[in-house]
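Section 4.2 – Deliverable D4.2 (structural model, holo form)

The reporting period included a commitment to supply a predicted holo structure for the target in complex with nicotinamide-adenine-dinucleotide. Inputs used:
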Amino acid sequence: MKILITGGCGFIGSEVVRVALAHGHEVINLDLLTYAGNPDNVADVADDPRYSFIKGDIADPAIAATAVEGCEVVINLAAESHVDRSLHDPAAFIRTDVVGTATLIMASRAAGVRRFVQVSTDEVYGSIPTGAFTETDPLQPSSPYSASKAGGDLQALAIHHTFGYDIVITRGSNTYGPRQYPEKLIPLFITNALDGLPLPVYGDGQQIRDWIHVRDHAEGIWHAMEHGAAGAVYNVGGGNEWPNLEITGRILAHTGASHDLITYVADRPGHDRRYALDTARLRGLGWAPQVAFDEGLASTVEWYRGRRDWWEPIKSGEYADWYATNYAGRR
Ligand code: NAD
Ligand code: TYD
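Output (structure tokens):
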């Protein structure tokens, strides 16, 4: 079948593109190529005759209408995705994550697309001190990023409720692996460690995230697309809960860098303390994560060690300017 995947030049989207091609489908990748979009992430499939690329904005109704034409399924991964950036420019998040999502869903429905998959995040539930969130828990987002993702989820559920349109939502946990933009914890700390630069730990470093390898996350999205029920939400978590300081220690061990690089910096404002997901619903449909955390982390470190050509231009370009402007005062 013909599938539209948006955000396919990003970290998780590019993995979903690979999964869809591996299943034998035709893929159109719609991506605006923001700072986070990198054509190199899909360089391995660019010459595949079943793959094509459209540069464009999911929030533009004309582009959305053209991109969805003739597609059986749409998987929406296009998003502004970094909490720290959302603290500086929430409007960009609302535009893509809320307006863009609703625009793309309405275009899909108008074009007769059979199923729309909205890729969301565990962050929409907010922070949880103990236990784990199930799909029926209320949304209590606490950052501009997670509030914008919750807005997208609510649009999707409302359009499903109003028109009976077939929409499935996935809510993934913190994802790691090759090709992740080095503003997020794991790739930032790996690349800094490889260069002997400080690892900026926010606050006390005891915040907990549930980590999932990008391959497991992409397979979870695919599984929900294939087997999920219309209007249902599916949590996609790796079941690897670790405090940030533990992750930091493991990265130092894998890179062989010194513990002296650990640098405590001011905490992120409004920092969520812990995320945790109950994944029984998707597991009940036959999905389970496959990548053991320490093996996944070790291979991710090796990927960054071998792909300086991928991350050095990023860290010396727009990102360096942004980081210097927004984080100079944090240290
Ligand atoms: P990313 O930032 O690496 O990639 C986002 C992609 O979307 C980029 O290629 C960018 O160019 C594109 N894009 C941004 N705005 C666009 C627009 N208006 N129109 C078209 N394309 C646009 O993000 P990611 O980490 O791969 O995340 C993908 C999705 O998964 C997001 O929806 C995110 O909320 C969700 N998610 C991410 C994580 C995580 O840990 N990274 C965890 C759970 C859920
Ligand atoms: P991040 O990768 O930004 O993902 P999210 O905020 O969506 O969970 O951050 C993961 C955790 O690591 C989060 O608790 C914030 C923390 N963190 C740091 O301590 N230092 C950093 O430089 C970054 C980027 C994150």
